[in-house]
């Protein structure tokens, strides 16, 4: 029964992702999600108490998880033996896996960007895992500063600067109708460019 319950939950999340992508967050309704998931709204509410909670789950599953997994890699036991450059490179590669293996995640991010100005979707997106992940990266920046590897600065600012550099070559994706394909080698190149540029500017001289 537990397996079936989890399968049902994932079916609801998948249906919700389709609805959010097709008609946006504001126009999406729990009725439509329930219809596509093949069940009643009463059943839907047994799994998710609100549209907001359902959207947060969709974001965690499809979009925020890449950044969350990347941040988790910073504190993994094996990471303690890596250099700062190696840590940031691994972080970048984990973060940018989204452009090589999950088009739906990028489409959901598009929904967020398109509606953030007139709803609370931006806040929901940030709280779905983005904030905690950025805080973990900022902590790594602070640790590097304390070790004398980076110039003293606001750790969160440094985290934002790094992620901005890592995403620099992918920003064009959000203006294209059809998503291009990126190879693993291309991702490695983008990460290398971003990390090297960051360290050239932030490393303690």
Number of strands: 0
Q: Strand fraction band?
A: under 5%
CATH class label of the largest domain: Mainly Alpha
Average of the residue pLDDT scores = 86
> Remind me, CATH topology of the largest domain?
Tetracycline Repressor, domain 2
Parts with pLDDT < 50 across at least 5 consecutive residues = none
Total DSSP helices: 10
What's the number of domains?
2
Cα-atom radius of gyration: 19 Å
Query: Topology as H/E string?
Result: HHHHHHHHHH
Shape: elongated
Level-2 CATH architecture of the largest domain: Orthogonal Bundle
The major sheet is characterized as:
none
Distance between the termini: 60 Å
Percentage of helical residues? over 70%
CATH homologous superfamily (4th level) name of the largest domain: Tetracycline Repressor, domain 2
Give the class from helix and strand content and strand pairing: mainly alpha
What's this model, at a glance?
The protein has 205 residues and is an all-alpha fold. 75% of the residues lie in helices and 0% in strands. It has two domains: 1-49, Orthogonal Bundle (Arc Repressor Mutant, subunit A), CATH 1.10.10; 51-202, Tetracycline Repressor, domain 2.
In words, what does this structure look like?
The protein has 205 residues and is mainly α. It has 2 domains: 1-49, Arc Repressor Mutant, subunit A; 51-202, Tetracycline Repressor, domain 2, CATH 1.10.357. 75% of the residues lie in helices and 0% in strands. It has 10 helices and no strands. It has helices spanning 2-27, 30-37, 41-47, 51-75, 84-95, 98-101, 103-115, 121-146, 155-167, 184-202. Helix 5 (84-95) crosses helix 10 (184-202) and helix 8 crosses helix 9. The N and C termini lie far apart (60 Å).
């Amino acid at each position: 029964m537990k397996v079936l319950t989890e399968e049902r939950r994932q079916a609801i999340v998948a249906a919700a992702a389709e609805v959010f992508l097709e008609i946006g967050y504001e126009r999406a309704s729990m009725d439509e999600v329930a219809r596509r998931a093949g069940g009643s709204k009463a059943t839907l509410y047994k799994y998710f108490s609100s549209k907001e909670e359902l959207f947060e789950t969709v974001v965690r599953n499809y979009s925020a998880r890449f950044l969350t997994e990347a941040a988790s890699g910073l504190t993994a036991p094996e990471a303690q033996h890596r250099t700062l450059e190696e840590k940031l490179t691994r972080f970048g590669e984990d973060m940018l896996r989204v452009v090589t293996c999950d088009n739906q995640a990028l489409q959901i991010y598009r929904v967020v960007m398109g509606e953030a100005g007139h709803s609370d979707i931006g806040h929901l997106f940030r709280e779905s895992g983005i904030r905690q992940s950025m805080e973990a990266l900022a902590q790594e920046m602070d640790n590097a500063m304390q070790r004398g590897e980076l110039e003293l600065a606001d750790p969160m600012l440094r985290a934002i600067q790094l992620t901005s550099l890592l995403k620099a070559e992918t920003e064009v994706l959000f203006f294209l109708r059809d998503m291009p394909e990126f190879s693993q080698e291309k991702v490695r190149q983008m990460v290398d460019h971003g990390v090297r540029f960051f360290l050239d500017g932030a490393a303690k001289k």
